[in-house]
From TrEMBL:
Stated name of the protein: chitinase
Signal peptide range in chain numbering: 1-28
Species name: Paractinoplanes ovalisporus
One matching Pfam family: Glyco_hydro_18
Family: Belongs to the glycosyl hydrolase 18 family.
Keyword annotations: Carbohydrate metabolism, Chitin degradation, Glycosidase, Hydrolase, Polysaccharide degradation, Signal
Entries under Gene3D superfamilies matching the protein: 3.10.50.10, Glycosidases
Length: 427
């Protein structure tokens, strides 16, 4: 009875907002399918015990158009490199943890996650996999790499050689050629602060455009040889201040699409509970101006981004606070600190928070966000019903699709990915 009731509530949540949105004509006719991008983290195979085999077995792989493999850092010398060669191309996988069900053997040409990507693509021929460069901890030297024409050419050439041509150190030249289908730029952030110690310059804004141009030029040059087209995408901030500091709308001349951060609007680094991924600013929000998906997308549209090249990011994790004593539904309430988490305090995977005992689900359908509260601890909460509401927003706004960070946060049945895929289905 409880399961039936939850399904009924979820269906009602979607129905309540469906009438608010109407698909744009181009999307309604199915002219171009929506992209559905899931991030797979290189390090997830360790403590999280999340391998690409689980992406296949859960049914997630068949419902995605792209996987972004995260991350490849930029070195102090302005080159592309591996952050963990053992994970990328050396570690052997057992039969149980292999996509094809066959154990790796000593002496095979390539192992690691890259070989598993190769196996995953064999089972899902339409799936495209990109290497994501940078990330929060790997963006320190992006500014140096992008600084001059010579440095850009050197950097891009090294990235194409390593990740696209597949010339991996210590292995047969070209052993990984054809495994990856393009490059995703995750520079966090040009022209503004990210991780402490990152190199930042005012000219990063123009240099990022020039960098995307150089990537497009070298990838297209390679295409003329391989007869294969390579994707170029970028991860883009939600903050209007960061957009103005580091990005020009003309980057979309070179990008296939850009994924807009649709999460971390608020988090446990703040002293009161809040939403982390609302579609619209909730009524009664204490901050003005505030962050929302609508504000982020509208900012990108205002600088000239094409709607169909904007892909909205969706979180597969929660932000959490504890020590709340204000009562009520817990939203916008003072908290004493981050809620305890399995891997880090203040954040938790959807697969974990969905089954926490003693919590009540709250939904703000007008603002497009939900949360869990037990009277003391508060978790932001994006469940399948919320994912469906967000896909309706994507359709209504005429956007290009959805991006999800990250696949290891979903449950064993890929419930969130399946909801996104259902909501963005095209004939």
């Amino acid at each position: 009875m409880r399961v039936f009731t939850r399904r009924l509530v979820a269906a009602a949540a979607v129905a309540a907002v469906a009438s608010t949105f109407a698909a744009t004509p181009a999307q309604a006719t199915g002219i171009k399918p929506y992209v559905k991008v899931g991030y797979f983290t290189q390090w997830g195979i360790y403590g999280r015990d999340f391998q690409l085999a689980k992406v296949q077995k859960s049914g997630a792989a068949s419902r995605l158009t792209h996987i972004n493999y995260a991350f490849g850092p930029v070195t102090a010398d302005g080159l592309c490199a591996s952050a963990d060669a053992w994970a990328d191309w050396q570690t052997p996988f057992s039969a149980e943890n292999s996509v094809d069900g066959v154990a790796d053997v000593e002496g095979q040409p390539i192992s690691g996650n890259l070989n598993q990507i190769k196996e995953l693509k064999a089972k899902n021929p339409k799936l495209r996999v990109l290497i994501s460069l940078g990330g929060w901890t790997g963006s320190k030297y992006f500014s140096d790499a992008a600084l001059t024409d010579a440095s850009r050419k050197k950097f891009v050439s090294s990235c194409v050689d390593l990740w696209i041509k597949g010339n991996l150190p210590g292995l047969t030249p070209g052993v990984a050629a054809g495994i990856l289908d393009g490059i995703d730029l995750d520079w966090e952030w040009p022209g503004s602060s990210g991780e402490v110690g990152n190199v930042i310059r005012p000219e990063d804004k123009q240099n990022f455009t020039l960098l995307t141009e150089e990537f497009r030029k070298q990838l297209d040059s390679l295409s003329r040889t391989t007869k294969k087209r390579y994707d170029l995408t970028a991860f883009l901030p939600a903050s209007p201040v960061k957009v103005d500091a580091g990005f020009e709308g003309k980057i979309f001349k070179y990008l296939d699409f850009g994924t807009v951060q649709g999460y971390d609007f608020h988090g446990s680094w703040e002293a009161r509970t809040n939403q982390q991924s609302a579609l619209f600013v909730p009524k009664g929000a204490p901050d003005n101006p505030d962050f929302s998906s609508e504000a982020a997308i509208n900012k990108w549209l205002s600088v000239g981004a094409p709607r169909k090249k904007l892909v909205l990011g969706l979180p597969y994790y929660s932000q959490g606070w504890t020590g709340i004593t204000a009562g009520g539904n817990g939203l916008f309430a003072p908290a004493t600190g981050p809620a305890p988490g399995v891997f880090a305090n203040g954040t938790e995977d959807y697969k974990t928070v969905k089954s926490l005992p003693g919590f009540k689900v709250y939904r703000d359908l007008k603002a497009g966000h939900s949360w869990l509260f037990d009277g003391k601890t508060f978790w932001t909460y994006d469940d399948p019903a919320m994912m469906l509401q967000k896909t309706l927003y994507i359709r209504a706004k005429g956007l290009g699709g959805a991006m999800m960070w990250s696949l290891d946060g979903d449950d064993a049945n890929a419930s969130l990915t399946k909801a996104v895929s259902t909501g963005l289905w095209t004939p």
